[in-house]
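Re-run with default settings, no changes from the original entry. Doing this only to confirm the output is reproducible before filing.
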Amino acid sequence: MTTEAEPRTSAAIGGMGHSVKRKEDPRFIRGRGEYIDDVNLPGQLWLDIVRSPYAHATIKGIDATEALKIPGVLAVITGADLEKAGLAWMPTLAGDKQMVLPTDTVMYQAQEVAAIVATTKYIAADGVAAVVVDYEPLPVIVDPFKSLEPDAFVLRPDRGPDKQNNHIWHWESGDRAATDADLAAADVHIEQDIYIPRIHVASIETCGCVADWDAVRGQLTLHMTSQAPHVIRTVLALVSGLPEQNIRVKTHDIGGGFGGKVPVYPGYVLAVVASLTVGKPVKWIEDRSENLQADSFARDYHIHVELGATKDGKITSLKAKTIADHGYSDAAADPSKYPAGLFNVITGSYDFPNAFVEVDGVYTNKPPGGVAYRCSFRVTEAVHAVERVVDILAHQIGKDPAQLRMENFIQPEQFPYKTPTGWSYDSGNYPAALQKAMDMIDYAGLRVEQAEKRERGELMGIGICSFTEIVGAGPSHDFDIIGLKMNDGCEIRVHPTGKVLARIGSQTQGQGHETTYAQIIAEELGFPVGDIKIEYGDTDTAPYGLGTYGSRSTPTSGASTSMASRKILAKARKLAAHLLEASEDDLEWEPGKFSVKGSPDRFKTIQEIAFAAYTNFPQGMEMGLEAVDYYDPPNLTFPFGSYICVVDIDKGTGRVNVRRFVAIDDCGNIINPMIVDGQIHGGLNMGLAPALYEEITYDELGNNMAGTFMDYLIPTAVESPAWETGKTTTPSPHHPIGAKGVGESATVGAPPAIANAVVDALWHLGVRNIDIPITPQKVWAILHEKGLT
C-alpha cells in the first residue's frame, strides 16, 4: 500500500503506519441526530472497493498502475498487502473465517478484491474503475444439494486437509427414534418440501464507518453502523492486536439494522487498516448495489417436513430435515451451541409428544449467509415450516384450520411446558390469542363469504398463523457469541439534583430505547421520565453488552435496567430511614417517595434522598446513588401471537391482494403501547415483503439477479394493507417486569399467515403449497395450468 508522501507504488503495508505523524486536528462530532454518512472529520479520506464480477475465479494479477496515476488516489490495498500484515482473513461471529481481501481466489460475485484510498468519494470511485484485475473463471456451485455431492469440488480448502467437502456442520435436536416410530404409526402422514429463499434486510441506511487512528495517543476511534459495538471492539482487538482500551466504537444514529448490522464486514477492517497506515480518518460507505449484492443475507433454508397425526387431527410427531445454504462462509451471529439458531422451536404452539430436527450447513459460491432478517435466530424459518404443515393437515382431513389449532394447542395450565426439542416455555395462552383474532375479524362470517364467492368462481382465502417466538438470548449457561456470554448491562447514576443518567449496553436503531428504558426507571424509582437521560452506542462509556438483535433488548438490557434501579432503591431505603429516623422495616414505598407507616405526612421524596446521598448520608455508607447490573436471564422468553389474513386473488393477473390482516400479539407486560404497536406495524410490513415480493436469486454462474431495487422488490405504503392489531397479556414469570420482547414477532408470524391464505384460496384446485415469495407470476402459472386464465 502507498501513502500520499510516498512514491505511488503498490508497496506492502509493513508496520501498519504506526510511525506516521499527523496534524493535531480538533475532533468534532455533533452527537445524536446524525447518521454515519453525516460524520466528516478534518483531513478525512475516502475508501472504495474493487469487487469481483465473477462468483468463482482465480486472481491471476491486479494492476493498479492507472488507478495510482489519478490525482487524489493515495493508496491501493490488495490481499497480498494484507497477507504480509497477517490480516487477509478475519473471524466471523459464527466461529468460521472469511477473507478481508482474497490473495488468490474470489468466492462470490461482488466479493471485495482491492481497496482504493483517495481524497474524495468520487476520486476513490474513479480509482476503482481504473484497477485492472486478471481473472480466470472457475466452476461455480450455487445449489447446496450439488455442493454436498461426493464429486463436488471443495470450496474451502483453507479449512484444512481433513475437510475435503463443503459440509460446514451438522446439528440436531429431539428424539429421532421415537419420532420415526410415531410417524410410522400415524393415521395421517404429511410430507412437504418448503424452500424459504435468500432475502436481504435492505435497511434505509447501508453499512459504513469512519476509522480514525490517532498515532499520538495510540487511539483508534471507529464511527460505524453497528448493532453490537462492544463485540466489534473486541473482535478488532483480537484481530489487530491493538489494546482493547485504545479502541473506541461509536454508533451514532442507525438507519435500520434488522440483523444486517451485527457482523464484521471487510469494509470495516479495510477502513481501519487504511487509517492505521496513512494516519488520517478514512470513511467507507457502501452504495445500494454493494449492499444488496455483498452483505446482510438471510434465510436460504431448504426444509423437508413430516407431520404425523391421528385421523381426527391430533398431531403426534414432527420431523424436519434442513439444508442451510450459508454461502462461502458461515457469517451468522448465532450462539455457539446453536449453529442453526433456535430453529428447534419448530414445534411451535402445539403439544407434540415427539419431534426431531436436524440441520446441515453448506458452503456455496454465494456471499456469506445466515444473517438474521428481523428474526430471532432462524425462528422465522421454523414457524413457517410448522404453520404450513399444520394447515396442510387441516385441509387434508377436512377440518377447519382454526379448530385444528385449538385442539392441538399447549393449554395454559401446561406451562411451564417442556418441548420435545428441549425448550422450556415460560407462559402462554394460545387459545385466547386465536379466539381474539377470530372475533376481531369475524372468522365465521368470512368462511360463509368464502363459500359464496367460491360458488361464483372467485378466489378468496383465509390464512392463520399461531406462532410461538423465542427471544431474549441469553442465559450464560447456554448462550454466547464467539465465547462472549450474552448478558447485558445497565449503569444508572442519580445526580445530587435528582436527575438521572442511565447508560445501557444494548444499541438502538429505531426501537425507541430512549423512551422505554426511561419509563422502566421512572416506574421503578419514581423520577419523572423527562429527568432521565439514556445513553448508548459508545464503548468508552456504555457498560458491556452483546448488542441489539433477536428481540433481546427488553428481555436482557431492559431487565438489567430494572435490576439496577432496584439496587438504587435498596440504598435509597437506607437513606430514607436515616433521614426520617425510622427503621427500614417501618417505611412504605410508592413510586417517588418513602413514608413512615401510619404517618403519611412523614416522607422523603426520591429527589430529597438523591441530594442526601451526596450531603447527608450515614457514617459508613458510600456517598452517591449509583448502581450497575449485568443481567443473566434464567431462561429465554416466549412471546406468541395469532394472525389471520384474508386475501383475494385476481384470476387475470395472479395478483394477491391482502384485504384484511388481524394480528394479535402477546409480549407479556407492555412498557409503552405506542412503541409496541410501531414495532408490530413495521414487522408486519417486513413479513409481507418476503411473503409476496422479496427474493435474492442467482443464475448458474452465481450472478445475483436482484442486485438493485429494480429487481429486489420492497413493499411501499401503496402495497401495505391497513394492519389491525390487538393484544393479550401473559407476563413472563421470571422476567423482572414480566416483559417478553416483540420486535420480531410480526416478521415471524406474517409470512405463513399470508401463504396459508393463498393456499386456502387455491386448495380446491389441488394446490398444496407455494413457496414464498408468492408472486403474480407463480399464481398465474398455477391458474393457467388449471385452465382458469
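Residues 1-32 have pLDDT under 50 and may be disordered. The chain has 18 helices and 34 strands.
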